[in-house]
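Go through this:
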Amino acid sequence: MDKLAEGDLVIFVDHKGRSFMQRLDPKKIFNFHDGQIAHEEVIGKPDGSEILTSIGKKVLVFRPTLKEYIMNMPRKSNIVYPKDISIILMWADVFPGARVVEAGSGSGALLLSLLRAVGNEGQVISYEEREDMLERARKNVERFGGIPPHLTLKKGNIYEQIEERDIDRIILDVPEPWRVLPHASVALKSGGIIVAYTPTIKQAEQFVAAVKSSSDFMFLQTIEVLIREWHIEGLSVRPEHRMVGHTGFLSLARKFIPVSPLQE
């Protein structure tokens, strides 16, 4: 049975489904609205245990999933949300062993997901212009399980260059992704996919226009991901009053080799 140990990240989940992330330390006590939980009482229990707080409230304790970690980790900026990340990974076909360039690193939400998707045989190179953001991303990756050998964090401006070659995928979360296309044209393998995550439709429109005017990128699609949860309790079965609505637009394109003038 998989037991929780000192130093493990865990989430405590209350009766309303609210979660609170902690790293287990036998000297610490977690104080919240349902009382206190001494970490030493959690260490040694199986993952997924139900425990009682100091005032007798039931709480569940789990190791966090990647989604739970992303939603609870420290941030210095807005993140790419799990609903968008999941579509990026599938629509862009981020496969085990892929070499992926990402920009910018942000707080590391997309970065963590890319690292898991490509696995130890792949490589993720993450460009970030701001030193403080690069450090935040590094700390969040390290906190979740250490810095893996297949990660390269680079302080640099991706608008100026992409140093790598033979890249399988490029994922952009930058204000002006169209400025990256000339460098992506050189860095991407033929058949490689580029994705631009943009908060506004005007940014998406400008990226798509640049793709369509290029000579070696085929525009695939622009999509928006919406999630609506449902309330299911007895005879009350209805959509939740609140939903995760707009976060950003995803625009995808694929590199191809155009016919040479001699072949025409």
